[in-house]
Amino acid sequence: MTVWRDAALTGWGRALRASTRAARPERANQLIEALDAAGPSLCLYGAGRSYGDAALNSGGATVITSRLDRVLAFDEETGEIEVEPGAAIGGLLRDFGPRGWAPPVAPGTGFVTVAGAIANDVHGKNHHADGSFGQHVTQITLRTGGGETLTLQPEDEAFRATVGGVGLTGAILSARLRMRPIAGDKAFVRERRMPSLDAFIEAFTESDRRYSVGWVDAAATGATLGRGILEEGESTGEPSRERARRARAIPFDAPPFLLSASVVRAFNAAYYARIPKDGRTRVRPLSAFLFPLDALADWNRLYGKRGFHQFQCVVPPDATESLRAILAEAAGSGLASPLAVLKRLGPGSAGMLSFPMEGWTLTVDFPAAQASADLIGRLGATALDAGGRVYLAKDALLPPSAVPRMHPELDAFRAVCDRLDPEGRMTSDMARRLRIRRAADG
Ligand SMILES: Cc1cc2nc3c(=O)[nH]c(=O)nc-3n(C[C@H](O)[C@H](O)[C@H](O)COP(=O)(O)OP(=O)(O)OC[C@H]3O[C@@H](n4cnc5c(N)ncnc54)[C@H](O)[C@@H]3O)c2cc1C
Question: Which residues line ligand 1 (CB under 6 A)?
Fold first, then answer.
């Protein structure tokens, strides 16, 4: 029997309290039962690692799929794997890394579920080389909002709507994907100082490594604007002296002065200077390189009780002046936290509403405050004016008018949703806020 419970009383996470009902099935048949009995307003929830409201459903029902995390099949010859929706990306690396296989694409945390990775068509540090997560998915089994079970292939419209479709076509019941062969579950990592944005762009463009990612000093201005550290990596079988450690917890909500402009400037300067001028190389566990924040449980408490907003945009390859303007405005605001990342994206994307497009993606965390929200609005507008996008997985602030500007296939997406879910059951706070489904959410 399905366990539908009063969401406020479950203790399954603060984020779920706004839902009226929640279910966390542990078996595939319970999942179907829960979906069928969910009522007219239904949202899927994976590991809740989206920063905004993509997996929240105030006043409606939420089905959590993270407990459905079994591996259903694995072909050692080809690396093709079939999993339940809640299988975690980090768990796949832990279990299959020692056998020479890694998830094809890994976002910055290993807690993300396969269904969540599909629903946001996530990208990793290897996007320029390997494309987005959805490009490695070979089959999706979907329970549509209308109650049908479909087996979708990459050439199907409904597949392209489900990948990056923020859960609005239905519930992913299972997925097949191609794992990537790796030389070993360690990473050979090279770190180099980049003294300016121009240096970063040049180095990213020339890099021939599979993984590349930049930490940016988002407080640096003037000649040092956009300086940071470029990390490049390759998988290796060499031993690492670094052990995979248990996550250390942040025991309290940090006081606001820790994120004041002067403390952030000083922290960033020290963080930049810790890399020797001529760089350094080391061998690290691949998981530690791919999922740096997972070493710190509850890291969000560093932002104090009020929390934070993460802003992530992408701008086209030649829009470097817009990228510079975004960085300059963030740095000049005195609001940017030390968490800021620059990556190069290749052209790969697999869904109608996918975020990835070729260009430069910048991510910056800002402590939650009206001034940050206003700033993020301006940064997003600059990115959109440059022909870029803001990432839905990170957003809680965009206006509805941004969605058709960012996603030219929005009408086709809406048509698929209307076909698969004619009564408009599939929804979320984000879907309503951004009127993604228009008629149904209006
Ligand atoms: C520290 C950190 C680093 C990150 N780094 C990156 C990065 O490098 N690249 C990147 O692309 N993203 C990154 N992200 C964002 C993250 O990858 C996405 O938000 C991802 O979608 C979260 O997956 P989840 O399993 O937590 O799903 P949730 O956040 O719970 O849900 C995400 C979406 O998936 C839908 N969904 C969940 N389960 C199902 C299901 N069974 N069927 C259908 N729809 C479903 C939800 O409705 C929602 O729309 C990062 C997030 C964090 C916290």
Answer: 43-50, 54-55, 65, 85, 107-109, 112-113, 115-117, 119-120, 122-124, 166-167, 171-172, 293, 393, 428
